[in-house]
Design brief:
Two copies of one chain form a homodimer.
Chain A lengths: L1 H16 L2 H19 L4 E2 L1 H8 L3 H9 L5 E2 L3 E3 H11 L7 E5 L3 H8 L9 E7 L8 E2 L2 E2 L1 E2 L3 H7 L4 E4 L3 H13 L4 E4 L13 E4 L2 H13 L1
Parallel strand pairs in A: 4-5, 4-9, 5-8, 9-10, 10-11
Antiparallel strand pairs in A: 1-3, 2-3, 6-7
Helix pairs in contact in A: 2-5, 3-4
Chain A binds a DNA duplex (24 and 24 nucleotides) through helix 4 and strand 2.
DNA sequence: TAGATTGTTAATCGATTAACAATC
DNA sequence: TAGATTGTTAATCGATTAACAATC
């Protein structure tokens, strides 16, 4: 028991020791590796990958080594293996279920896109509050009434809620979802959610920030 | 002439000396300052703002000082003035015109959102290649045929093109737009654009990366 | 074996934080 | 003036790059 605790401590601190900078780069590696696989490239060296991605080979080796030796001296990296490993680290193999709250244009666009499937996330339902939208079919899903939310979440294993609501509606909805035990919120409302419940993980998508950076670069 | 060159060199190197880390944070300041203005808060200290934004007061002062003294000792910062100044730096006052290529769900969602207006960007037209969509009205814009693109860009001052196309169509379109003299691309296709023309500024929006980070945090 | 390329340490670089003098 | 808070320097911290020994 004491030994187990010790081991767990070691593991969890090892995980949190991986720098945020590295984590932020992993999805990009994942994208490039998928592209390589699609082109039937099964082996790549840090040098080749560095040219492709416009980063240093040193950084690639350093990054990948945070999680143990994924490569082989004199050979490079096995693309398929590496893709799988990074997917594991990023939780692709967890097969989380997700629901979309707000079946407007953005919600519909997300429902139709391969963004979930590619990352092992399964979209299971869309909800909306507008009678015009409830009952409509969106990418094969029949939009449910938001009144059914509690029932649905209790009877299904939902880990992620995608929020494509207006700014003023999103805070209450986030608290409602947190109360239902949802563990992750993917927030597209242009406001930062700071929930009272610290167990809930939030990713705020700020598309406007990206547009501003573009404008900055144009101006510069 | 020699003096002018010298001055220009000084200025441009001064601008590029502002660290990327600072630039990346400016849009977030901009958002919080707008929120403050909306709540009629006209004055704020780095200490108060730091509590609001969950960053150090030291960082706020350091960041804002890259562009000169925006604050006043013993008083703090004038919210309205600061908002305006950051807007200037980020190009809000340039009033760029933008067009959307691809009037599907995502294009329509962007057209309906306040994302452009809030940052001084004016959306002037939407284009699509599908006969089903051409001629339809989206947020008050009549969707134009992509065949009209060349004509339109030549007769209008378009700085930014928003790309909401599929992965396979986006590269050709990006080159076509670069050829027409478009200076900025806001790319929503989940692929990185690396144009031959280095004058064109590209911002790639990778929503999938954000979803993966969320999954990572859920798994951790 | 020889060549190639990783894993890993040490050096450099940049970004963040702390501290305080300047000053409103 | 006294109090408050900035602007700015110096110290710390973290992230990136360079270099090379280990090893496939």
């Amino acid at each position: 028991m004491a030994i187990n605790n010790f081991i767990n401590d070691e593991e969890s601190s090892a995980k949190s020791r991986v720098s945020p900078a590295v984590i932020k780069r992993l999805p990009r590696y994942y994208r490039y590796l998928r592209e390589l696989l699609q082109n039937d490239i099964l082996r790549i060296s840090s040098g080749e990958l560095s040219k492709l991605m416009h980063v240093t080979a040193s950084q690639i080796r350093q990054d990948l080594n945070c999680f143990g030796g994924f490569g082989q001296q004199g050979y490079g990296y096995n693309v398929k293996y590496l893709y799988g490993k990074i997917g594991e680290i990023l939780g692709v193999t967890q097969h989380y279920n997700a629901i979309i709250i707000g079946a407007g244009n953005l919600g519909s666009a997300l429902a139709a896109s391969p963004v979930f499937e590619r990352r092992g996330v399964k979209l299971t339902a869309l909800f909306d509050s507008s009678p015009d939208v409830i009952g409509r079919s969106v990418s094969g899903y029949t939009v449910k009434s938001i009144d059914e939310l509690e029932d649905y979440v209790r009877n299904n294993d939902v880990s992620i809620a995608v929020l494509t609501l207006t700014k003023d509606a999103v805070r209450d909805m986030a608290e409602r979802l947190a109360g239902l035990g949802i563990k992750g919120l993917w927030n597209f409302a242009s406001t930062e959610l700071n929930l009272s419940n610290k167990d809930v993980v939030v990713q705020n998508v700020h598309m406007g920030d990206s547009l501003m950076t573009l404008c900055y670069e144009l101006t510069k």
